[in-house]
Amino acid sequence: MHMSDDEGCIKVWDTRERSCCNSFEVHDDYISDMTYVAETNQILATSGDGTLSVNNLRRNKVRSRSEFSEDELLSLVLMKHGKKVVCGTPSGALLLYSWGYFNDCSDRFIGHTQSVDTMLKLDEDTLVSGSSDGVIRLVGILPNRIKQPLAEHSEYPIEALALSNDKKYLGSISHDKMLKLWDLEELLSGPQVANGDEPAEAGSDDSDDDSDDDVMDVDMAATSSKGSRSKKAGKGQSSSRPASDFFADL
Asked: Are 129 and 112 in contact (CB under 8 A)?
């Protein structure tokens, strides 16, 4: 079990011995997000100091730390079979780091109008983002594009996203103190968009070339102000059943 604090320290606990077995004092500000990489037995962490760190549990040492970014790093997700680390920022930009080359990001693209506070990996090429404008979006990585807005939780920032164990439901929480459950299949069945508001035609989208590219096709509806979006226009239906029922499936 791993945890972090507002001082930038990461600690790993042995639940059998009930003691701390690893400690990494690598960051200068709060830890915003962490993810465990089982294949290499490492923990990736982002921080309010604007850096990304790679921490080796086997050797109990910091393997790498990125240069300071202009923005805080708020969220992270590992994509492309472990080849890319995607980080969210307060400006709405997503920073891409190539595995093994963590000094600086290899790609940066804009698509969100406000901060990207949480992200969830859907598959190796697609993630789900939660932004401070309250909108949940489907984002493609390499080629980089916002495919479609999936739903609007509320007018408040989205704090976290999670999938049910069977991956049929997407859960979102916000400052409105409510857990909402979305039928993921119904959300994904909505039309994807290219430029403007017109649905993209099959086969007319970007190629699957994995080369880094600064170009991002942005859905104009997704980047409009939250006041122009109707909460009743969401493609999925939410549920307000207790949070304990949802997380029991995880």
From this structure: yes
